[in-house]
Fold each of these.
Amino acid sequence: MPPKNSVVLDARAVDRTLKRMADEIIELHNGTDDLILVGIQRRGVQLATRIVEAIREREKVEVPRGALDITLYRDDLQTVGPRPVVGPTDLPWNLEGKHVVIIDDVLYTGRTVRAALDELADFGRPARIALAVLVDRGGRELPIHADIVGKKIEVSPTDRVDVLVDELDGKDAVVVVPRDEGA
Amino acid sequence: MTRTLGKDLLGLEPLSTEQIRLILDTAEPFKEVSERQIKKVPALRGMTIVNLFFEASTRTRISFEFAEKRLSADTVNVGSSGSSVQKGETLVDTARNLEAMRINMVVIRHSASGAAHFLADRIESNVINAGDGTHEHPTQGLLDLLTLRDHFRTLEGRRVCIVGDVLHSRVARSNIWGLTKMGVEVAVCGPRSLLPKDIGEFGVRVFKRIDEAIEWAEALNVLRLQLERMQAGYIPSLREYNRVFGVTRERLERADHEVLIMHPGPMNRGVEIDSDVADGEQSVILDQVTNGVAVRMAVLYLLAGGRPDLADAAKGGSER
């Protein structure tokens, strides 16, 4: 019998967690002035949109939401081959002096964040860049940490952590998938 | 389903519909890179690309060079004049010498049909055909497809007519193969003397009169009439050609629908196309040039990582 998937966060827990992250983002920046949320393609973008909604409900302000596809900044093109589809990058603002919060679904090796920092640098020089992730699964390969973490979990390096979002997957959840599953 | 391109891009004839769609889809995000203030991403950092242009070219050579530089590759340009080619060095020797300097890719333009294939079989580096004789010009075909898709949203079932010197045109061949693979209905229109004798085997419609072609088509791809064709006796005179096959405003206005106008350049204004058509509202000729950079970035990017064996092995271990 194959090992079972385990649900770490269900839809209600995801919602609660994102709202708490929204509060922490406002706290960390003493408000919403000059704040820009940048979601990393793909699921970071949906999560960023949810956090923007949560901030709107709480603070009655609309925080800009950008999108970043880091595919072209990866350091492993030669070994893993090109990603089939490079998603859109959408950062139509001057980042000079802004407080940018990178939003991603899972923080693992840190290589995605490293690429995102490189890419942001090509768009301008923000006053500050913070990192907020829904799940921190450990296993860092670079000196990178998140400022805001939705849920910290310990999983084996062979497991996969999937973040599902309603817009793309039909439901919200965080699931740990053992390696053999679906192989 | 093929999600990679393999080692080389030699033509559109050998590609599958999925491979063509992969290139067009990959080109989309690259359009945005060229709109950035810093028009550069590090995807091909450390790769060395040689542009071997044995035939005159402005647009294609510069477009490739921009594409390479915007992906952070290091580039070297080699032309036939001022290089060892003038001293009689063979194509293979030139390429092998370059390869001995540890290059990664060769972009080649050559007057001999099949030159790119010939090279691809003999060197390890990726080879991209930037036009070989009267055979193929695949990146032009791809940028034409991308421009059509931008305009019409979908390609399936659209009607495109290629007008002019189809016989000598590598652009026409790449277009015919690319368009038909993407489900576009294709026609050609031109003087009998400038259509291939075996045109029936391409599965395209043939119009004898330009007015019929305009009536039928949603887009015209107007080919450059090479002026030396007149000396060779293919057409009586340029004025005669313009009178019978020239794409003019009067002709377009007689049609009951709008017709998109494309041209691979360089144009002979007043011969195959009139100035007010080339500069008119239905013209997407400059969009083609913009899309050329994005399509070439996509091809370079896909070929650079085109090691499916490694890609499959590494998939499990990679993040996300």
Amino acid sequence: MSENSGTAVLDPPVDDRPAAAPVRRKRKRHKHNLAGYAFLTPWLIGLFAFTLIPMVYSLYLSLTKFNLLTAPQWIGIENYTRLFSDPRYLQSIKVTLLYVVTSVPLKLAAALLVAVALNRGLKALGFYRATFYLPSLLGASVAVSVMWRQIFSRDGLVNQFLGLFGVQGADWIGDPRFALWTLVLLSGWQFGTPMLIFLAGLKQLPQDLYEAAAIDGAGRFTVFFKITLPLLSPMVFFNLVLETINAFQTFTPAYVISNGLGGPIDSTLLYTLYLYLKGFGSMQMGYASAMAWVLFAVIGLFTAIYFWSARKWVNYAD
Amino acid sequence: MQTKKKQVHWRAHAVLIVVLVAMIYPMVWLVGASFKPENQIFSTMNPLPLAFTISNYITGWTATGNSFTLYLANSLTVSLCTVVANVAACSVAAYAFARLDFAFRRFWFALMLGTMMLPFQATLIPQYTIFYQLNWINTFLPLVVPYLLATDAFFIFLMVQFIRGIPRELDEAAELDGAGHVRVFFSVILPLLRPALLTTTILTFIWTFNDFLRQLVYLSDHSRYTAPLGLNAFVDRASGSSYGGMLAMSVVTLVPTVAVFIVSQRRLVEGVATTGIK
């Protein structure tokens, strides 16, 4: 695992054999065609059976009316046109975008702050790391969502804490103005994974720059914004891409906190929850397939924007 | 200089501990509340129960039709089968990508990385209809079989990265001794791949055990319910009559994953730090 493995996912595979003369390599046959495809067979079957063929099938279903029990009925692009006149769908897009653009920066900021705080050769680093990481490992579970629902309930832990200061807290889960923010906080609570990645990145940073900055008398904030953050930008990029994709797919907490309905008044109707309700609640599988394809396109668009903008702010100097 | 540094550390520790306590407090409260009588659960912030009782566990255990013994057994079955399938399938594919030279290798590798970015919703509905045609609904097969075919590309990638770090001379020495690819895979690569296999095992177990949406979709028969579905049955009623039982069973469903985490946290933290994941 190389020092930059955090970003290696974005790079093409490295051929680690000693470089043969390029001209000869062109003519050379591949040495292990038989063995290679033999070892690859299970994955190839899975790729076609569970990914590629379902993708194509889903595209077809999105152009049909389909309730699972009777044969799909071709209706062209009607599902797609209906999507954008469906007020609940538009609401779910609004809720999801709000959730993504708030929860992802919150999570990454928390991860970065804690990682920088931890990266000073503190004692008990292992203990801190493990404890901060635990919530992101358990966060997707139903149990944690149940817990969250209780601590933000009208007489839950949060309001009791506010009560200590004489503040009367709201009914966070039951009030449509606040319910989504409890989900954003729950996501922020799970900053452990990006924190570990940042921490690994911080360990690789060249010390001489910091020594030079200290000699120049640079303050802590200057050092952070002029040295640490630019050097860490590939990791920020990597975490940004991953966490955005994850945020778009959030389902469990919205389902648990709203009793599977996306309420109150659709304020927690995250995209995947609405897709589930359409596909498996009212069995409109054609419609849900169209939703899945739009989601796929939106995630693709976000990722493309990230990669396009990366040229401007991601520092690949090393 | 020395004292100044110490002071800074002292401050850093103080801040970190406050953050840590705030983060962990809800979980401590959850465990404490699960041992409180129903009427004390929401009356105090103090996580320690004044009157200790295990009645929440006794009533909660069977409150949703079937017992949590069954739900936990189902969850363990699904999780362990998934782990075995995933470790076996991904290591085989990873060996091919990392060590073998075959036509279109780069193309397939890029495609594999692409599937890591694919939202699972994109294939949820068509996969469901396929499994429905196969009559696999309400069995564990839709949850396990995809892993037998290495559909979780993330772990292939993790292992490819690891295998690339294993010196090629070891394979070549074995090949000189007449070992074929199968021998090299089993007696050279697999033993050295152990750390990556362990990371895969731990993460697959925890993620599968906590997975909800797929289990919700595929398992509707109560006798097939897994622990998250059993817990969700409490939520669905939402009558508010038995918070104690619901909180107690939340703790129960967290125990297996927390236990695995405690045993493996060092390995896990290293694994995540060096590969970067969810």
Amino acid sequence: MFNRDRWKEILEVLTSNWFRTILTSFGVFWGILILIILLAAGKGFQNGVMADFGDIATNTMFMWSRNTTKEYMGLPKGRRYNFKLEDVQAIKENVPNLRFISPRNQLGGFQGANNVTRGIHTGAFNVYGDYPEIINQDPMTITSGRFINHSDINEKRKIAIIGEGVKASLYEKGEEVIGTYIKIQGVNFMVIGTYKKKSNDGDGEEGQKQIFVPFTTFSQAFNRADNVGWMAITAQDGNSITSLKERIVSIVKENRKIHPDDKRAVGYFDLYEQFNRVESLFGAMSFIAYFVGILVLLSGVIGVSNIMLIVVKERTKEIGIRRALGEDPWSIKTQILMESIFLTIISGMVGITFGALFIYGVNALLDANGPVDMFLSPSVSLGVVLAALVILIISGLLAGFIPAQSAIKVRPIDALRTE
Amino acid sequence: MIEIKDLHKSYKMGSNSLHVLKGINFSVKDGELVAIMGSSGSGKSTLLNILGMLDEADSGEYTLDGVPIKNLNETKAANYRNKFLGFIFQSFNLINYKTALENVALPLYYQRMGRKQRQEKSLKYLEQVGLKEWSHHLPSELSGGQKQRVAVARAMVGEPKVLLADELTGALDSTTSYEVMDLIQKINDQGNTILVVTHEDDIAHMCKRIVHLRDGVIVKDEKVKQVRASAYV
């Protein structure tokens, strides 16, 4: 199959009519180009949306308290309640397979008033009382100093880790930050670290304007007693938080004396479920890309098949001669099939190359003009290219099959008579 | 070499059937040079096609070098054609995008002979027909006589048991015809068995035996005194 004469012949046949060969291969070229571009665009969209999830551990739920909507055990509806530290403990003890539970209290928030001062600078920032584990659930890069540790929690140290955005508003450029003090609602905290969060969309700036202090310090300094405002709960890998959610919520309801059927009292956001929804959306998108791409490719393949039929027709006499000289039908069939596969693969490769160049160009444009919402580094993986190659080989075989069959259907004696 | 017994062949043409060969009995010995003569429609080409395994008889026996030829599938027929037979056609039937050398080498390629060996052997046969210098020319660059000599070399290169020539001088002028016949006679002198189908008397008389065919039966089978083509060249 891989001998020199066969390849020479394939090239001779395909180059004997350049114009026709190029026109034919254009169909396949176009099909594979569309397939690659569709898949890359889908991937770019996916990358963009996934980047919005950032590095947040996706197997996570967030939980906060709301007003109750049902009377229960003598308590009225519309009651405002708080999670307590004992709830955190109860969840830890009763729900297996949890990786992190981070309770959090918060100051400030959306359009909050100025709450932090340093000398003549003031600013409005989100101030969080957190446990050290939060850095695994809402990842940030510590750019100087360190993050909260358990000694800070135990000793209730008055320390703070501030974002690069906070640093920019409270400090002069080039000023030393570590070891200085900031005043949060009248309480002094020593800055022991700065962080930066990765995120490419509109929240980016907001994410840099946060201040983290130890949970215990926060509770004492701002009179939160054993209240907990908010919790981030991450399940261990292999256990989805979605399946544990029910259990967690019911523990909290029991502890806080909330009616078991009160659906609105505990607010939560299941990131994992959302994440899965988005994932399946992208699954559907790449299915559509394959579907459309392959259909376009199919019309190209039919073109190849058509031309191969014409080539076979033109070469009827030659095929007759060769059979008279003793070439067996299988060899002729192989020849036609290989011509068809060769043509498909070459034009497909050109299509893949052009697609890659196109993606490269788009990426260069994106890099030059800064990030675009919901779209990030479109690309196709090696797996996709291999899949495209397999599709090409199969379609080449399909395209060549009917012509090859018709080539050996004519009896040599009839083939010799054609002029 | 060739044994034929009671060969019948008819073609279906719509509702009528045309009985072309009506019981041919005929044998050819090793080293013979036989002309099959007849006007058009006499069945001579059909006979040659059956001998060449390009067509199959309806009934009758055909033995080639002791091998019974019947119920061949295409692969087997191709194999036998390649091993036993060499074809020379009226219209040369060279493959026009291959050089003379590649055309001659084709039967060897189908025998799966190595490339180098194939080229050496083909070149040797091209030399025998006097076209060594033309080995890298395409058929379109050769004259009719040269083309037919390439075809003869191609038919010979596989060292077949029988050479079948169908109107091999039909497309050539008389001088070139005689040159080609001279070549055929020389090949026959080396002991090769050759069958020539022709309707030209002078060509037939350059063979050693003439079989006359008319309306599907052999009417005359005679040994003749061979006229050497070299006398005319």
